[in-house]
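Follow-up to my post from last week.
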Amino acid sequence: MFRPGFLWPKGRKTSEEAGFEMVTIQVLKTDTPQPGERANEADNPTSQVMRFGPDQPLRLDCGVDLAPFQIAYQAYGTLNADKSNAILICHALTGDQHAFNDHPVTGKKGWWLTLIGPGKPIDTDRYYVICANVIGGCMGSTGPASTNPATGKIWGLDFPIVTIPDMVRAQAMLIDRLGIDTLFAVVGGSMGGMQVLQWTVAYPQRVFSALAIACAPKHSAQNIAFHELGRQAVMADPDWRGGRYYEDGAHPHRGLGVARMAAHITYLSDAALHRKFGRRMQDRELPTFSFDADFQVESYLRYQGSSFVERFDANSYLYLTRAMDYFDIAADHNGVLAEAFRDIKTRFCVVSFTSDWLFPTSESRAIVHALNASSARVSFAEIETDRGHDAFLLDVPEFIDIARGFMTSANIARGLAGTSLAGPR
Amino acid sequence: MADQHVLPLPRTTTQAPETHRGDHLLVADMVPRGSKVLDVGCGEGDLLRLLETRGIDGRGIELSREGVNACVARGLAVVQGDADTDLINYPDDAFDYVILSQTLQATRQPRVVLENLLRIGRRAIVSFPNFGFWKMRLQLLVGGHMPRTENLPATWYDTPNIHFCTIKDFVQLCDEINVKMERAVALDLHGRPLRLNAPWWFWNMFGEQGVFLLSRAGRTK
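User reply:
Got it. Predicted complex:
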């Protein structure tokens, strides 16, 4: 039976950071954060917060005006005088605003150090890099784990359903508040890539360049199915309590852990699992003839499940997976994706990975075809790797090179100051 | 047909900086500044780079993943795609010029590709190796084997080039599909243009490659 929080020593690298260089031991761990800590991070995050009062509601697609609300964000680098060097990073389903700093709950390093930092493609010496927690998230932007000011209680399932366009609308309000008119770039992978596309559709004149990685113009039936599996796992946990677990200081650890385990498989590839784990045993020579984690791959997945529940709110997981399910750009444009990008001036770069079966190359190609039909300026590269969907978070040199080339050319086209960039010209 | 190839030649091609291929310079000279260009089969983006330095808005399609990744890493707007299958995704008149440089012979359906080029672009520039080149003929005639040259070193069994043609063949195809030849140039083995007033048979014999600037001959068909 899977019990969370008992498998992995704290502070170990995640698979993303280590590229799987672990899987050795199985250690008891009892220091799972209390639900109160998580709730605290939701209301009073360890990052900057922009608050929007009752007079500035966020108009949601479901028809609700959300007010007041707040957006938690991190910003790195310096905004230049004419505010033309801002880059918005959009995080994925289980990401947050802590792209380039240590995580306040887990202590782990930022999740996109491969791409962000001094001398990196998203150069913090050159750009003002903003990363905001999405609306509906649980790391400080208003979501189901936040306190509803009207009742003084945690929102839970009373929180309205949010969509990818809602997330982007909220980000635009943040950008407005920061006094930035046009973003030099919007960058993101997976659900972050969906937000990138939505930005270019909703605010084409405000996005100079867009880097959309491992994403799709719509969520496929298979992906909706996986999300439904995850949600049902959460809801089947007795500790979920109809979404009102906060009141009792509970958290559906088991359900959310199972959801994460299932989802994590979709982020990897058969080849990568085989390469890293094969059928190797975990600290034993022979099978125990029990349901212990005999296999390394089991131990690894359990670790993924247990470490995830430390930092993520179960209801937030329900809301964000739902937001992805509803995403379909073409549906809002008479079923024609190209219509969404009509006359767009934004410079695009679309990247996919050969072994990504969650957001396969065909999805990226659909975006590219639509952009071609709109005569948009688009680059598209498919990176060969066996590391699956998660490749966008990993150190894949070919991908980093492409990101660098795209950012450099966009920088030159934008005529940003200090463009003595590396690379040929 | 004989009058069609007597067209003005760009002057700058002869003093080429060694960094650029002769046919690239010739092609680049055919494109006015400010044009919007699609390079089909752009390889590692050398021609696109040349065009960009001349203030031309260039995009590319390339089949090989390595080529695409090199292009994008160089900051070029290039997508991974296949001339045979992906040109249909582009709307009519999307570009001023569509370039097919040394790629026609590698397509499955050269005729369809050619028609697509002139649908997407108002003009097309096509260059291809001339299989009527005397060295080719000699190898087949005397050597009795499939020709291989410095520029086409692949053996018959692993060449990507599946639809070779001669300059004469190409001119014939243009006539058939009602394409107007605005300029035609034959280049020698070193990428230098052959003399202008030679007859077609001379070009077909001594041109190592042909470069053609094409446009629609009108909407009669």
